[in-house]
Each structure stands twice: as structure tokens, then as C-alpha cells.
Design goal:
The protein is an alpha+beta fold. Helix content is 32%, strand content 22%. Helix 2 packs antiparallel against helix 3, helix 2 crosses helix 4 and helix 3 crosses helix 4. The longest helix is centred in the middle third of the chain and has 20 residues. It starts with 10 loop residues before the first helix and ends with a strand. InterPro entries: DNA/RNA_pol_sf (IPR043502). This is Reverse transcriptase domain-containing protein.
Length: 194
């Protein structure tokens, strides 16, 4: 299969914009590739054989993918194109800053950006979440921020898994991981993980 065009944002650009303003925020789209269906007439190109009922004693059965899968070479281009189209459609309802976040500050399914204030961060995350849900049936979640105020004002079920049940006043904050980096929320520093 053809890979398709590389529509992924420049990683250095995403990381530079992430460090530009005072309030850093991260988010993730839940199972992004699986959110986009494969046209019926293209499913034969994504055919594979596997044992019926996942039992190696059974005969092989012919399956076809109905959604785009991680590891399928055209999936990143298709998902990024669809995500950016969703943002363009949502712009009129949810604003240019939502479109800019999605089109400029995502690296595949990971959003990293920074804004000037807590209220701006909370508003941008909530509007982007609603825009992607409304126009793309996509779930933006795993929110994290270097701002305690932002973390406490967001819906706890949308926080990064290791932040969900923490007391932000007393508990030590775990490192956040994204794009090959650790983000220390307390010191607001990045480190490369190995």
C-alpha cells in the first residue's frame, strides 16, 4: 500500500511552540486511527487471515479491516488529513484557535501547546474537546498541564491516567510522557527518556 503524503507537523516546531508561553498543556486523541473507517470498496486491500475464534486449532478465516489500524502504512496520512479537515469544519463554530491547535500543534494524535493564561488553557482544551467530539466523533483526553489551576478545573475523567486520583495540593506529580520526552509538571522541565 502507498504510504500517502507526510502530513505530520514538524516535531521541532510542535515542541518549540509547546515551550513558548507560560501555561503548557498536553492531550491525546483516544484510539485515533480506529476512529476512521475504511470505505467498503477498499476493505479488500486490508484483508488478512486468522484462526476462527482466535483458536489455532480452528481453520483459517478471511477478515477485512473496517477501520484504519496502527501499523498500516497509509493510516497516519489518512488520520491526519481527517483530523485537519475536522478542525477546518469546526473553526466556524469553535474558533480559529481550536483549528490552529489541531492543525499546528498535534504530532499524530498528541497535542502539545502553550498559552498565556490558565483561563485560556481551560477554555481552549474544553472547546477543542467539544469540537472534535461534535464534528469528528473523536475523544480528546489525557489532559495534563504545568498549571495546578488548569488541572483542577478540568473534568477528572479527562486527565492523564496518572493524574486522575491525585491531590494536587499534597501529592507528588508523576512525570508525563509524550513524543519521546518526560515532562516534569512541577519544575516544568523536559528530559529525554530512554
Amino acid at each position: 500500500m502507498l504510504r500517502g503524503p507526510d502530513m505530520t507537523n514538524n516535531l521541532v516546531g510542535v515542541l518549540m511552540r509547546f515551550r513558548k508561553e507560560l501555561i503548557g498543556i498536553m492531550a491525546d486523541i483516544q484510539q485515533m486511527f480506529y476512529s476512521f473507517t475504511v470505505n467498503e470498496e477498499h476493505r479488500n486491500f486490508l484483508r488478512f487471515l486468522w484462526y476462527r475464534d482466535n483458536d489455532i486449532d480452528n481453520e483459517l478465516t478471511d477478515y477485512r479491516m473496517r477501520v484504519h489500524a496502527f501499523g498500516n502504512s497509509p493510516s497516519p496520512a489518512i488520520a491526519t488529513f481527517a483530523l485537519q479537515k475536522t478542525a477546518e469544519i469546526a473553526e466556524q463554530t469553535f474558533g480559529k484557535d481550536v483549528k490552529d491547535l489541531v492543525c499546528r500543534n498535534f504530532y499524530v494524535d498528541d497535542a502539545l501547546t502553550s498559552v498565556g493564561s490558565n483561563s485560556e488553557a481551560i477554555d481552549l482544551l474544553n472547546r477543542t474537546k467539544e469540537a472534535l467530539k461534535t464534528f469528528g466523533n473523536l475523544r480528546l483526553h489525557k489532559f495534563s498541564s504545568n498549571s495546578k489551576e488548569v488541572r483542577t478545573k478540568l473534568d477528572p475523567e479527562d486527565l492523564a491516567e496518572n493524574l486522575e486520583n491525585l491531590n494536587f495540593e499534597t501529592d507528588n506529580l508523576p512525570l508525563q510522557r509524550s513524543l519521546g520526552l518526560y515532562w516534569n509538571l512541577e519544575s516544568d522541565t523536559l528530559a529525554v527518556f530512554r
